[in-house]
Design goal:
This protein folds into three domains: 241 residues, 2-enoyl-CoA Hydratase, Chain A, domain 1; 196 residues, 2-enoyl-CoA Hydratase, Chain A, domain 1, CATH 3.90.226.10; 34 residues, no CATH class. Helix content is 39%, strand content 17%. It contains 20 helices and 17 strands. The strands form three sheets. Strands 10, 11, 12, 13, 14, 15, 16 and 17 form an eight-stranded mixed β-sheet that branches. A seven-stranded mixed β-sheet has the order 1-2-3-4-5-7-9, sandwiched between helices. Helix 4 packs parallel to helix 5, helix 12 packs parallel to helix 14 and helix 16 crosses helix 18. The mean pLDDT is 96. Bound molecules: hexanoyl-coenzyme A (HXC). Hexanoyl-coenzyme A binds next to helix 5 and strand 6.
């Protein structure tokens, strides 16, 4: 037995080395960690239990029969993050450039199948040259097997992808189907076709980083939800993210201990809205006041900044926040903001995370660029996502709630559970100037002094409509509240809503305008 154990230990020691010391050195020189170092930093110390360490590829083409490396370029297994279980795979670039062979794909699929049965999140650390060229179509089949599992797992278990090296061609579509993508600046790239192909086809000169780096995808394309300066921050972000989300769709998000015996009033909020309704303010400062310990994990921080989304806690309960940002484009809803919001809302709804909406929105963005690119079908996504969500939904209107955007931003009409307005709220079909110019157009033109008449009508309109009281008279808001009392109201609302039950009609699936 002793010899047998020694043999096993020797094998495992060999597997731990991946592609060998020289390749590990090259990996480090590129500013990248190895696949194993990443797993160690991601999960609770000593909690990783590896599977399939002894798997090898089955190819004889191109002399590969003489070159079999234990593990075949991907490390898979189960571990814990803050004492909760997760599944992890980590591609090993030191082994055939982390390329995906039949065996490599099978390891990932096995991990996903087991995770689906157990109902635990899957975290993929991607660093791969793509399909293993020597295996041809078998490798493409392996990718398709993963895509299918990503899709079937969507909404069942959370899926998180870190991109920590190349991720090109069809390979990008596995992370793209998952719920969150986290990238490292300068060392990770995602693109369907690389700079050389781009040059041949479109004659554009573009660098790897510009075409598909972390900054590009976290600002321009919205493909990445987070971008960080280094891999350590990427892995730290994933740990934080996991802390807000449940293990699966039947589970509840983790609850943190909370002391209810405190004064929750926030006097600063009573003076946070500027006197001038057209003056911007930073909605994030309101968020920080309202949530536990001021902690807010913002998602898509640098993409469509006119809408803020992210996770926080209120009285220990995990919640998703969707908030207009008046300091960027006056908080208007455009195509990117709508898509960003819709995706986040659907994630929260799928995984039992209640939603808090902070509303200050002048409407949807006008213009040919928006219309021609489909603000109608894209704005509909945000509306659809709010309408179909059955998780607890609470809205606070801090200032503007105009037009269709009033309906869309989780109004009472689309199943908002508690809808509050601050006294500064303006709830109407449109802003005073636009409204007055339409309904009093003739009177203003006919008047002896049109400018004075416009001012008079504006004052009339503002007094009549630019307030929350008509909505309150009809019960369209449940209460007009003093801003300083908002945190107390939210704590009460979200605690009450813990027992909320709501459902949508039975169907195969909806036909959301994707
Ligand atoms: C087999 C590969 C490989 C691959 C890299 N390697 N990519 N082996 N299949 N796809 C190997 C290299 O031969 C090399 O082996 C080692 O990994 C490291 O690669 P280098 O080129 O030395 O590294 P680097 O200079 O950092 O460049 C990394 C790279 C480049 C940018 C990823 O290797 C590259 O362009 N690879 C090919 C990428 C690609 O076209 N893949 C197919 C995409 S299509 P040695 O033994 O010399 O160290 C695809 C389809 C998916 O993936 C479809 C799904 C539907």
């Amino acid at each position: 037995m002793k010899e047998k154990i020694e043999h096993l230990e020797k094998l495992k020691k060999k597997a731990l080395k991946g592609g060998g010391e020289d390749k590990i050195k090259v990996q480090h020189e590129k500013g990248k960690l190895t696949a194993r170092e990443r797993v160690e930093l991601l999960v609770d110390k000593g909690s990783f239990d590896e599977l399939d360490m002894l798997v090898t590829h089955r190819t004889n083409n191109f002399g590969l029969n003489d070159n079999k490396i234990l593990g075949d370029g991907v490390i898979t297994g189960f571990a814990r993050i803050n004492e909760r279980p997760v599944a992890v795979y980590s591609q090993d670039f030191t082994v055939f450039g982390g390329s995906l062979s039949e065996a490599h794909a099978e390891k990932i699929c096995k991990l996903m199948d087991m995770s689906m049965k157990m109902g635990i999140p899957v975290i993929g650390l991607n660093d791969s040259g793509g399909a293993r060229i020597q295996e041809g179509v078998v490798s493409l089949g392996g990718y398709a097997d993963i895509f299918l599992r990503n899709t079937l797992a969507s909404g069942v278990i959370p899926q998180i992808s870190a991109i920590l090296g190349p991720c090109a061609g069809g390979a990008v579509y596995s992370p793209a189907i998952t719920d969150f993508i986290v990238m490292a600046k300068n060392t990770s790239h995602m693109f369907v076709t690389g700079p050389n192909v781009v040059k041949t086809v479109t004659h554009e000169n573009v660098s790897f980083e510009e075409l598909g780096g972390a900054i590009t995808h976290s600002t321009k394309s919205g493909v990445a939800h987070f971008a960080f300066d280094n891999e350590i921050e990427v892995l730290e972000c994933i740990r934080k993210l996991v802390d807000y989300i449940p293990l699966n769709w039947k589970d509840q998000p983790p609850i943190k201990e909370f002391n209810f015996d405190q004064d929750f009033s926030i006097p600063e909020l009573d003076s946070i809205i500027p006197e001038n309704p057209n003056k911007p303010y930073d909605m994030k400062s309101i968020i920080h006041h309202l949530v536990d310990n001021g902690e807010f994990l913002e998602i898509h921080e640098n993409f469509a900044e006119n809408l803020i989304v992210g996770f926080a806690r209120i009285s220990g309960l995990s919640i998703g926040i969707v908030a207009n940002q008046p300091s960027v484009l006056a908080g208007v809803l455009d195509i990117n903001a709508s898509i960003k919001g819709a995706r986040f809302i659907r994630f929260c709804d799928a995984f039992n995370i209640p939603l808090l909406v902070l509303e200050d929105v002048p409407g949807f963005m006008p213009g040919t660029e928006q219309e021609w690119n489909g603000i109608i079908r894209n704005g509909a996504k945000l509306l659809f996502a709010f309408c179909e969500a059955t998780v607890p939904k609470v809205t606070v209107i801090t200032r503007k709630a105009y037009g269709g955007a009033y309906d869309v931003m989780n109004s009472k009409h689309i199943r908002g559970d508690f809808n509050f307005a601050w006294p500064s709220a303006e709830i109407a079909v449109m802003g005073p100037k636009g409204a007055v110019e339409i309904i009093f157009n003739k009177e203003i033109k006919k008047a002896k002094n049109p400018e004075k008449e416009l001012e008079k009508k504006l004052a009339e309109y503002i007094e009549k409509f630019a307030n929350p009281y008509i909505a309150a008279e009809r019960g369209y808001v449940d209460d007009v509240i003093v801003p300083s009392a908002t945190r107390t109201k939210l704590i009460n609302a979200f605690q009450l809503l813990r027992s909320k039950v709501d459902a949508n009609p039975k169907k195969k699936h909806n036909t959301m305008p994707v």
